[in-house]
Design brief:
Helices cover 38% and strands 22% of the residues. With 280 residues, the protein is an alpha/beta fold. The strands form two sheets. A six-stranded mixed β-sheet has the order 6-7-8-3-9-10, sandwiched between helices. Strands 2-1-4-5 form a four-stranded antiparallel β-sheet, with helices on one face. Helix 4 packs across helix 5 and helix 4 packs parallel to helix 6. The N terminus is likely disordered. It binds adenosine-5'-diphosphate (ADP) and magnesium ion (MG). The site of magnesium ion has 4 residues, from helix 2.
């Protein structure tokens, strides 16, 4: 499958600005270029060894689903990728830039610009309207002119299906709407990749679909994504690769059909059996 999504010089798909185009682009083509790579990354919290020799790669336009039991280190891994957690040893490269655990917040800025982050808990600013939430960082961090930021924010809101919520405060939104605003806010910084940490886990079941739909659209447009998720159907249908983490170790990874149909490791099989049984 090939992507027709035109990318701007910042790697920001121009199709984010239109609704119609999103529907004609059918699937993404994973490129050879490696966007994120880790080599032998270890992370300790005190004496607790949470990530063990993690070799992890994400290619441009690839969608990677990171799955595994609670406590296996999924959040820690993606938090290490943008320096929210400092890895204890090993190497992390983001778009060729080395992420050193000694870096100051200022030194981390260029790396964090590459990556948008969407959390389970939305983290919207409650005292700001939806529009203000989205334009805040582009104005302050990217020094984008206000009119341009507003035009972009409106386009992103239309994209996530929330144009009419522009001027309301987050507390009037459902969880699914809040998460869609959080996705628009992450996109407003024009990242080259998005990291999602269980974006639908705190939502009522009937609201999960609207968030997954937005994520599916992004995937089909060629957005590079790492998604920590328990939504196995999403992992199976949308991701290019599934990575199974348990006890801080990458136990198995591969194409979704391979991992779901023919898991190579007993551990993977037991995990899938359990989650698939409870999600039916
Ligand atoms: P997951 O996201 O897969 O559920 P986490 O990455 O959140 O797993 O956690 C991995 C392990 O690290 C767990 O045992 C957790 O208790 C521990 N852990 C996570 N964050 C911290 C922290 N800030 N301090 C101490 N231990 C932590
Ligand atoms: Mg987690």
């Amino acid at each position: 499958m090939s992507s027709n999504a035109p990318f701007s010089s910042q790697g920001f798909p121009l199709v984010y600005q239109t609704h119609e185009l999103a529907q004609v682009v059918q699937g993404n083509a994973v490129e050879d270029e490696i966007f994120i790579s880790t080599r032998k990354v270890n992370k300790y919290f005190g004496a607790k060894h949470v990530l063990k020799d993690i070799d992890f790669e994400v290619r441009k336009q690839e969608v990677v689903a990171l799955i595994g039991p609670s406590g296996s280190g999924k959040s820690t891994l993606i938090r290490c990728l943008n320096g929210l957690e400092k890895h204890s040893s090993g190497e992390i490269l983001i778009h060729g830039q080395r992420l050193d655990p000694q870096m100051t917040v200022n030194e981390l800025i260029p790396i964090r610009r590459e990556l948008g982050m969407v959390f389970q808990g939305f983290n919207l600013f409650p005292h700001m309207t939806v529009l203000q939430n989205i334009i805040e960082a582009p104005l302050l961090v990217r020094k984008m002119p206000r009119e341009q930021a507003v035009v972009m924010a409106e386009a992103l809101l239309a994209k996530v299906g929330l144009a009419e919520k522009r001027d309301v405060y987050p507390n009037s939104l459902s969880g699914g709407q809040k998460q869609r605003v959080a996705i628009a806010r992450a996109l407003a910084m024009q990242p080259r990749a998005l990291l999602f940490d269980e974006p639908t886990s705190s939502l009522d079941p009937e609201l999960v679909g609207e968030v997954l739909k937005v994520m599916r659209d992004l995937a089909y447009e060629g957005c590079t994504m790492v998604v920590v998720t328990h939504e196995m159907q999403f992992a199976r249908d949308v991701s290019d690769r599934v990575v199974f983490l348990a006890d801080g170790v990458i136990v198995e990874q591969g194409e979704p059909e391979q991992v779901f149909r023919h898991p190579q490791q007993e551990r993977t099989r037991l995990f899938l059996e359990r989650v698939l049984a409870t999600s039916l």
